[in-house]
Amino acid sequence: MKIALLIPMYNEEAVLPFLWQETQAVVQKLPQETFEYIFVNDGSTDGTLAQLKTLAGQHPNVKVISLSRNFGKEAALSAGLTEAAKADAVIILDADLQDPPDLILPFVQKFKEGFDVVYGQRADRSQDSFAKRLTARCFYKFYNALASRRLPENAGDCRLLSRRAAEAVLLLPERERFMKGLFNWVGFRTTGVPFTRQKRR
Ligand code: UDP
Ligand code: MG
User: Fold this and answer.
1) DSSP structure string for 139-201
2) Which ligand gives the minimal distance to the CA of 73?
3) Among the listed residues 90, 105, 99, the one whose alpha carbon sits nearest the alpha carbon of residue 3
4) Minimum CA distance residue for ligand 1 atom 21
5) Which ligand 1 atom lies nearest to the CA of residue 93?
6) Which of 52, 70, 73 to mutate to test the pocket of ligand 1 (most atoms within 8 A of CB)?
7) What is residue 91's predicted lDDT score, i.e. its pLDDT?
8) What's the CA gap between 72 and 17, in Å, rounded?
9) Beta-carbon neighbour count of residue 99 at 10 Å?
10) How distant, in Å, are the alpha carbons of 25, 119, 148, 157, 178 from that of 73?
11) Contact (CB, 8 A) for 90 and 161
12) 65 C-alpha to center of ligand 2: Å?
């Protein structure tokens, strides 16, 4: 199977070498799958794009999409998803290693068991400030009181989407996309994998 790793990048030159090294170490544990990297440079003003171009020159499985300015993470994911949805499955990761690349292993495992959407769910928020925990709780309470489809709590964008789930998201006409809302809204067989969110590297 071909699995696309979709990673939005905004001024991540300092972390990119670590991201590459740690992600490569994990994908090498799954030699029967083919991985490709889709990096979306979201208008970085540092050396991110230059580094990505160097990587792409060295590795044919690295693709770089570079936006004309900074549009924000939601738009960057949107831009990369069209390309990523050509693979059998897409895995979305943050560049700063807050979503540990080790999650790729259970994500692929669950995908093989037949799940279309596998989201990372934070086991606890003890690393967060009081204000962050409070606003996050309020957000989920408020959203889930309004929405007809419940948003799983403490799950971010970090997840696997099968090609059909990614294509369903791409069919939606929204231009300003709240991605994790839409990833959830499209349905399909869904499950969560608990993880501990790391500090920004
Ligand atoms: N990001 C992006 N565009 C932005 C801001 C962030 O593509 O305008 C990327 C960033 O490079 C990272 C991910 O989105 O890969 C999450 O960003 P960040 O770590 O700043 O967010 P947080 O961890 O606070 O949610
Ligand atoms: Mg972060």
Assistant:
1) HHHHHHHH-SSPPPTTEEEEEEEEHHHHHHHHHS--SS--HHHHHHHT-SSEEEEEE-PPPP-
2) 1
3) 90
4) 94
5) 15
6) 73
7) 98
8) 22
9) 22
10) 25, 17, 25, 10, 10
11) yes
12) 20
pLDDT computed for residue 128 by the predictor: 83
Q: For tokens 């003890």, name the residue.
A: 126
3-state secondary structure of 59: coil
Residue ranges with CB less than 5 Å from ion ligand 2? 96, 98, 200
Ligand 1 pocket, residues with Cβ under 6 angstroms: 8-10, 12, 42, 70, 72-73, 76, 94-96, 98, 200
List per-block mean pLDDT (blocks of 10 residues) for the chain, which spans 201 residues: 97 97 97 97 97 97 97 94 96 95 97 97 85 91 90 90 96 87 92 91 88
Which tokens is 12 given? Answer: 């991540």
